[in-house]
Automatic annotation (TrEMBL):
Annotated Ribonuclease A-domain domain residues: 27-143
Subcellular location as annotated: Secreted
Entry's Gene Ontology BP terms: antibacterial humoral response; defense response to Gram-positive bacterium
GO CC list: extracellular space
Annotated family: Belongs to the pancreatic ribonuclease family.
Protein name: Ribonuclease A family member 4
Pfam family, one: RnaseA
Origin species: Monodelphis domestica
SUPFAM superfamilies: RNase A-like
Annotated TM spans: none
Length: 143
C-alpha cells in the first residue's frame, strides 16, 4: 500500500513538472510545425523519391507546392542543442538565430510541378544550418 502511494505521488510530481515546463501554446505550435516540416531523424535522406514522398506526407504540397524545404536527419536532442549556441542574425534581421552542422536533405520543386502532384529534386549533404529559436526550442529553419 505504501509503495502504491509513493508511485502515485511520483506520477503526480512528474506530470506537474511536465506541465510547468510546457512552452506557451503559440510557441508549442511553432515548434510542432518546425518538427513536422523539417525533422526526419529516422532517415538518412535520399533522392527525388524521398522528397516527393516526404513533402506530400508532411502536407507541403497543398494548396500549392512549397518551393524549397530542408529535412534534418539528426535526433531532436542534437537539433535542440543548436539553440544553446551563440545568437546570430537571422535573414529577417532578428538576433534569435543559431547555427550548427547537420545532415540534411534539401528538396526543391521542379519546374512545371503543380499541386497536389508536386515533384522535387533532392540534395543530401552535411552542411551548416541556421535555425531561429524561442525559449531554447527551434521554431524556424532560416537557411
Amino acid at each position: 500500500m505504501a509503495m502504491q502511494k509513493i508511485g502515485s505521488l511520483f506520477l503526480l510530481l512528474a506530470l506537474l513538472g511536465l506541465w510547468l515546463v510546457q512552452p506557451s501554446s503559440g510557441q508549442n505550435r511553432r515548434y510542432q510545425q518546425f518538427l513536422r516540416q523539417h525533422v526526419d531523424p529516422s532517415s538518412e535522406g535520399g533522392d527525388s523519391t524521398y522528397c516527393n514522398q516526404m513533402m506530400h506526407r508532411r502536407r507541403m504540397t497543398e494548396p500549392r507546392c512549397k518551393p524549397v524545404n530542408s529535412f534534418i536527419h539528426e535526433d531532436i536532442w542534437n537539433i535542440n542543442s543548436i539553440c544553446r549556441t551563440t545568437d546570430i542574425r537571422c535573414k529577417n534581421g532578428q538576433m534569435n538565430c543559431h547555427e550548427g552542422i547537420m545532415k540534411t536533405t534539401d528538396c526543391r520543386v521542379t519546374g512545371g510541378s503543380t499541386s497536389p502532384n508536386c515533384r522535387y529534386r533532392a540534395m543530401t549533404r552535411t552542411r551548416h544550418v541556421v535555425i531561429a529559436c524561442e525559449d531554447l526550442l527551434p521554431v524556424h529553419f532560416d537557411r
